[in-house]
Amino acid sequence: MNKSTLAKQLSQVQENEVYFGPQGFVIASSESELENAQQGYSVDDEGLALSVEELGGWEPHWLVIAQDTELGDPYFVDVNDPQFPVYTGVYGEGVWESTQVASSLAAFLQCLSLLSKSGNQQGPQFVPDENSLTDPGQLAQLQQDIVALCGCEGFWALFFDCYLDWLSDEDDEFDL
């Protein structure tokens, strides 16, 4: 898949920013945003390819498609796999450690849509409010639905654990 085709798929997303509690995703929804998203990963600030040493384990077949709004971590697809699985990565000690987020790009985008509808937020929330999803049963069902869509339990278990921590740390009025 080339960047133009990928950008076309990403431009179909209704919401290019999705938030759920304090966590969020910003999707590169145009060809120029997709090109800019590669800076610091596979290319430098001027768009020149980084050397193998500069990449720190970043694979040349990974294309950044989104970014975490809280920590800035990239979400990327593996263009060598026809399903275009989605991963996130953390850089530490000179290497990238990746974690699979979704078995395909389509599944990832469906999960973001589900989060957007469930959270119904316009931006990150620093404290829960009356619109925050707090019902343990609803949260468990949402997590189960997302894991079923994405086929990746580990990332989403951590995502929801962080959300539950945010609920309990910020406001003890919610009975969890």
Give a brief outline of the structure:
It is built from 6 helices and 6 strands, in the order αββααββββααα. The protein is of the alpha+beta class.
Description:
The structure is a single chain. The mean pLDDT is 87. The chain is an alpha+beta fold and 176 residues long. 39% of the residues lie in helices and 20% in strands. The N and C termini lie far apart (44 Å). A hairpin with a 5-residue loop joins strand 3 (62-68) and strand 4 (74-78). Strands 1-2-3-4-5-6 form a six-stranded antiparallel β-sheet, with helices on one face. The protein has six helices and six strands, in the order H-E-E-H-H-E-E-E-E-H-H-H.
Radius of gyration: 17 Å
> Secondary-structure element sequence?
HEEHHEEEEHHH
Major sheet description: 6 strands, antiparallel
State the strand order across the main sheet.
1-2-3-4-5-6
Descriptive key words:
six-stranded antiparallel beta sheet, globular, 6 helices, 176 residues, alpha+beta
